[in-house]
Q: What sequence folds into this?
């Protein structure tokens, strides 16, 4: 039987590096950055025969629901060594880590998945598609001109972190409250570099790039941060200044922006570069997942102006069977009375006069976040209710598409 305990850097550093090496995450020279990332939040290990063979790390943060912020936990990494697979360690240790963060007051949990299905067993539901553009910087057309930027290196990590926190944030946007993790990410890849703009000593907008091929690209925009759309346009103009040398830049489409608006002849260039090393394209992937940890708190921060609906919610939460027996939080299965509207709430109980919605926590999280409407989730996910109730929910939960805008 494995023992779960907090990560201890003196005792576990080498075993945890071994886990990450066996997975293929850790290459020679990245050890210090790995320590920074693991130390940035809370890490727990499962011990087998006296050594750490599974590591789960979570970091605190916040998530924006329309205009309100909720306390957030990010499952930043889950990994099991080669000798300890399929023993239930990753599931059990992740459930224990989530239960800890939920008991500490985190209302929502989110992660980047390796595949759909695994974290569904812990109550997670799949988020919106993220679109990735691969484009020739020469095809960028923006009215803005780029000023001379400042070079940014790992030494600037505190300014970069602050600039990320201060960026424009829309519905679903997450901030990770672990400055060391930004430092670790910046130090992780050997050719990464930043370019950005300061005003009164504050880094207002910047891009953090990485590339494996410095001479011709592709260059990957790991992240960009800006406080206004003029600043965003300046950053796009800055990418364009690289056009004489760099053949391809990849970036995640920023929330609320349609990158294609800024491209010259996008279809022509996509057809001409098809199947080449510098193929211009647009790809969509739904790779992040979220789940509600505290239903009452999430509903309290939900203000929806398009009407109001009150219903019974019968919520099932599969994490219940995985959390340790002594955990203070054991999932959120139960019967609730829920109102969604300008003044929303959830309270335990049942009212025979109200319509009933049955859902898994993952599917209800998707409905609440606005990933997809209730009616279509009733067709494709674990949501069940009368047509009239589903239609009311479709109309009332009318929020912008959620995007964390911070990859994890
Ligand atoms: C993914 C990983 C963490 C799982 O570790 P593990 O300790 O073997 O996992 P567990 O034993 O808790 O769970 C394995 C179970 O999940 C199941 N499973 C795995 N992927 C699944 C999926 N996509 N959908 C449904 N079930 C899945 C397995 O079939 C297995 O089922 P079983 O218990 O009935 O045999 C491990 O394979 C790993 O470290 N991979 C490389 C790193 C990685 O991808 N980490 C995740 C980053 S998001």
A:
């Amino acid at each position: 039987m494995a023992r779960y305990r907090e990560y201890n850097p003196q005792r576990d550093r080498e075993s945890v590096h071994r886990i990450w090496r066996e997975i293929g995450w850790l290459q020679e020279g990245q050890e210090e950055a790995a320590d920074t990332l693991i130390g940035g939040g809370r890490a727990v290990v499962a011990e087998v025969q006296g050594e750490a063979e599974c590591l789960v790390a979570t970091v605190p943060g916040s998530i924006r629901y329309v205009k309100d912020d909720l306390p957030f936990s990010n499952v930043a990494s889950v990994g099991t060594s080669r000798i300890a697979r399929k023993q239930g360690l990753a599931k059990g240790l992740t459930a224990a880590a989530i239960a800890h963060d939920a008991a500490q007051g985190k209302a929502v949990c989110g992660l980047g998945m390796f595949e759909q299905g695994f974290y569904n067993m812990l109550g997670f539901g799949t988020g919106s598609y993220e679109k990735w553009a691969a484009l020739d910087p020469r095809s960028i057309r923006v009215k803005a001109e780029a000023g001379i930027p400042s070079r940014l290196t790992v030494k600037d990590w505190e300014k970069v972190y602050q600039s990320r926190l201060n960026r424009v944030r829309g519905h679903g946007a997450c901030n990770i409250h672990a400055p060391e993790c930004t430092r670790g990410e910046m130090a992780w890849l050997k050719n990464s570099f930043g370019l950005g703009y300061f005003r009164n000593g504050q880094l207002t907008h910047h891009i953090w790039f990485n590339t494996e091929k410095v001479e011709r690209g592709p260059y990957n925009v790991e992240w960009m941060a800006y406080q206004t759309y003029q600043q965003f346009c300046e950053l796009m103009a800055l990418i364009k200044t690289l056009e004489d040398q760099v053949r391809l830049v990849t970036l995640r489409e920023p929330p609320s922006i349609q990158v294609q608006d800024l491209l010259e002849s996008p279809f022509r260039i996509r057809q001409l570069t098809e199947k080449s090393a510098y193929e211009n394209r647009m790809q969509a992937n739904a790779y992040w997942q979220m789940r509600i940890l505290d239903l009452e708190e999430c509903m309290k921060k939900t203000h929806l102006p398009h009407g109001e609906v009150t219903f019974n919610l019968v919520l099932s939460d599969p994490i219940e069977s995985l959390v340790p027996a002594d955990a203070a939080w054991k999932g959120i299965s139960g019967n609730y009375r829920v109102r969604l509207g300008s003044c929303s709430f959830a309270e335990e109980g049942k009212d025979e006069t109200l319509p009933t919605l049955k859902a898994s926590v993952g599917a209800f999280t998707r409905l609440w976040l606005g990933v997809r409407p209730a009616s279509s989730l009733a067709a494709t996910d674990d949501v069940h209710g009368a047509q009239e109730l589903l239609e009311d929910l479709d109309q009332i939960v009318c929020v912008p598409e959620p995007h964390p805008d911070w990859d994890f």
About this structure: The longest helix spans residues 9-23. The radius of gyration is 22 Å. Residues 23, 54, 78-80, 85-91, 112-118 surround coenzyme A (CB under 6 Å). Residues 218 and 248 are 5 Å apart (CA to CA).
